[in-house]
Amino acid sequence: MSVERWDDARLDRLANTVERIGDRVDGLAIRLDTMADRIDGMADRMNAFDIRMDALGAKLEVTANIAESNARVIQALANVAAEAREERQQLFERMAEQQANMAEEHKIIMQQQDEIRGLQTENRRMLDILLNQRNQDDNPTN
Fold first, then answer.
1. CA-to-CA dists, residue 66 to 29, 71, 116, angstroms
2. If residue 62 lies in a helix (H) or strand (E), which one and from where to where?
3. DSSP states along 78-139
4. Are the CB atoms for 28 and 119 separated by under 8 Å?
5. CA 128 to CA 118: how far, in whole Å?
6. Euclidean distance between the first and the last CA atom of the chain, given in angstroms as a whole number
7. Cβ within 8 Å of residue 59, ≥6 positions away
8. I need a labelling partner for 130 at 20 to 30 A (CA). Which of 21, 42, 95, 123 fits?
9. pLDDT tens digit string along 89-105?
10. What is the dihedral of CA 93, 96, 97, 100, to 10 degrees?
């Protein structure tokens, strides 16, 4: 069995590769944080939207009691409510898309972390081989 010798240049290339993978993971983590911030912002907007919807519902009841005879006012409020439902549905769809994107990004990060762990294990194994070989060269048993 032959053991391939690792020189400094080759070890440097390996270290650079591991560092680039780490940088990619860092970049993906930043993107994931950004997406989380965007989703938090959407959640805040949804909360404000729910408050607006509750307020609109209350105004609709008051207006309906006051203006039973005014069909145009009732129709206008119904149109506003329909638009609000559409906006709410669109927000839910966008949130679902963001969640799907986050799940995919999380999957990619997990895969890259697994790759990094594998590379770390391989690096330790190669270092052990190199150290053992060095020790054998320094202390020949012949």
1. 55, 12, 68
2. helix 8-66
3. HHHHHHHHHHHHHHHHHHHHHHHHHHHHHHHHHHHHHHHHHHHHHHHHHHHHHHHHHHHHHS
4. no
5. 15
6. 19
7. 77
8. 21
9. 999 999 999 999 999 99
10. -160
Collect all residues with Cβ–Cβ distance below 8 Å to 52 and sequence separation of at least 6: 84
Length of the chain: 142
Predicted TM-score (pTM) of the model is 0.35
Residue type, 22: G
Looking at residue 140, the DSSP 8-state letter turns out to be -
Distance between CA atoms of residues 115 and 28, nearest Å: 14
